[in-house]
UniProtKB/TrEMBL annotation:
Keyword set includes Kinase: no
Class of this enzyme: ligase
Name of the protein described by the UniProt record: GMP synthase (glutamine-hydrolyzing)
Keywords for this protein: ATP-binding, Glutamine amidotransferase, GMP biosynthesis, Ligase, Nucleotide-binding, Purine biosynthesis
Organism: Helicobacter anseris
Protein role: Catalyzes the synthesis of GMP from XMP.
Ranges in a coiled coil: none
Keyword Signal: no
């Protein structure tokens, strides 16, 4: 985002809302005051989570916000409030079939308010609306591009690191790989990329990551075997938030121990990681009173006892932008189009306690699922695909014998940036083949189910 737009936001007091704020939390005085200063009054509530056609006033179609937006454009609303009366000075710009005031404006004060989400892929003309607001209304420049961003970030990293070393946390996913590539361009071999095998990886993941860095990036990768440490700390833990926090804290401890090996003269002062904007949104309140959806191991800063400063060059980017940055840096598509894999790994794809037996079951099922997606050509058609071990047993029949075994849930979603997602409509014959292979080839699994939940209301990962 250009500096001029940021200055406009600051000087013109643009108010950012979210679902929690729209529920009118009486304890949130700042949020309420911001709305009341404009002229809103709290009058009632109405819960919605719907796609609807936006009925735009004919005059508004020719005005800045809706310039080029088609009539009956589909938008996405997911709020728990209803505007029954608009403040003095505002006019209605758009409504839906059952909701007035989907968009309003006070042209004199240059205040625009909307009740829907233009930023999600479900709002078909949302990008045009945001562009109209940024460029036509705020006067932002359009000179920003990924080439300029890459050059700017490389220069920033050189300035930050100076003559020191940077420890780079690598998972093998696109995010941390792009960060490692950026750092290598900026400071060369003074970046120390470290890949931690926490025992929660997919089948053959460690070998694949090592080969990928060796063959494609030419960046020397250090692998730390910390399987016993992580699995030991997770023993007996069932709560998903506790699992995430244990894994996050243990990552930091392992990285600090590794840093000491390369820090004889105290020259290593930074830890770099591939935090993205969706991670931040789901983990912490950002510029507003949003609730934590789930903790991300790479969000929340470093503990006080750790001597590193954090470097997060992708913190304000979405996944599709990170991939575009990787292409700008010349990274191969095979790396950029890998499906996202969470930092906590398979720990959050096993419902309940994590143990070696369940990890092996899940790895075998997951490998079959991904093999079938690759062979059918569907791997590159979905955003993310994986298996979840539900730890729910049911009765089955294998041959003439009764079984009482575990259940695997197959999950595949389509998305643009990961903020929202819809379940992938995989062909029935493909799902049948996947189910048959998992049940026949993975001893201990006798039932396979397919998750048809979108985000929201669900998250992409189960925990």
């Amino acid at each position: 985002m250009c500096e001029e737009f940021l200055d406009f936001i600051i000087t013109n007091k643009i108010i950012e809302s979210d679902v929690i704020l729209s529920r009118w939390d009486k304890n949130d005085k700042n949020g309420l005051n911001a709305y009341q200063e404009i002229g809103f009054e709290v009058t009632g509530q109405k819960g919605e989570l719907v796609e609807l056609a936006l009925d735009i006033k004919k005059k508004a179609l020719k005005q800045d916000l809706f310039m080029g937006v088609k009539q009956d454009s589909i938008v996405w609303m997911s709020h728990a409030d209803k505007v029954e009366k608009i403040p003095e000075g505002f006019v209605e710009l758009a409504k839906s079939g059952n909701t007035h005031y989907c968009a309003i404006a006070d042209f004199e004060r240059k205040i625009y308010a909307i009740q829907f989400h233009p930023e999600v892929v479900h709002s078909e003309c949302g990008g045009e609306m945001l562009k109209n607001f940024a460029v036509n209304i705020c006067g932002a420049k359009t000179s920003w591009n990924m080439h300029n961003f890459a050059e700017s970030e490389i220069a920033k990293l050189r300035e930050i690191a100076k003559d020191g070393k940077v420890l780079c946390a690598v998972s093998g996913g696109v995010d941390s790989s792009v960060v490692a590539t950026l750092l290598y361009r900026a400071i060369g071999e003074r970046v120390i990329p470290v890949f931690v095998d926490h025992g929660l990886l997919r089948a053959d993941e460690r070998e694949a990551v090592e080969e990928m860095f060796r063959e494609n990036l030419g960046v020397p990768l250090i692998t730390v075997d910390a399987r016993e440490i992580f699995l030991g700390k997770l023993k007996g833990v069932r709560d998903p938030e506790v699992k995430r926090k244990i894994i996050g804290e243990t990552f930091i401890e392992v990285f600090e121990a590794e840093a000491k090996k390369h820090n004889a003269n105290g020259e290593m002062k930074f830890l770099a990681q591939g935090t993205l904007y969706p991670d931040v949104i789901e983990s912490v309140s950002v510029k507003g009173p949003s609730k934590t959806i789930k903790s991300h191991h790479n969000v929340g800063g470093l503990p006080d006892w750790m001597k590193f400063e954090l470097i997060e060059p992708l913190r304000e980017l979405f996944k599709d932008e990170v991939r575009a940055l990787g292409r700008e840096l010349g990274m191969p598509e095979s790396m950029l189009m890998r499906h996202p894999f969470p930092g906590p790994g398979l720990a959050i794809r096993i419902m309940g306690e994590v143990n070696e037996e369940d990890l092996e079951l899940l790895r075998k099922a997951d490998r079959i699922f991904l093999q079938e997606l690759h062979s059918s050509g569907y791997y590159d058609k979905v955003w993310q695909a994986f298996c979840v071990l539900l730890n729910v047993k049911s009765v089955g029949v294998m041959g003439d014998n009764r079984t009482y075994d575990n259940t695997i849930c197959v999950r595949a979603v389509e998305a643009l940036d990961g903020m929202t997602a819809t379940f992938a409509h995989l062909p029935h014959d493909l799902l049948e083949r996947i189910s048959n292979r998992i049940i026949n080839e993975v001893e201990g699994i006798n039932r396979v189910v397919y998750d048809i939940t979108s985000k929201p209301p669900g998250t992409i990962e189960w925990e």
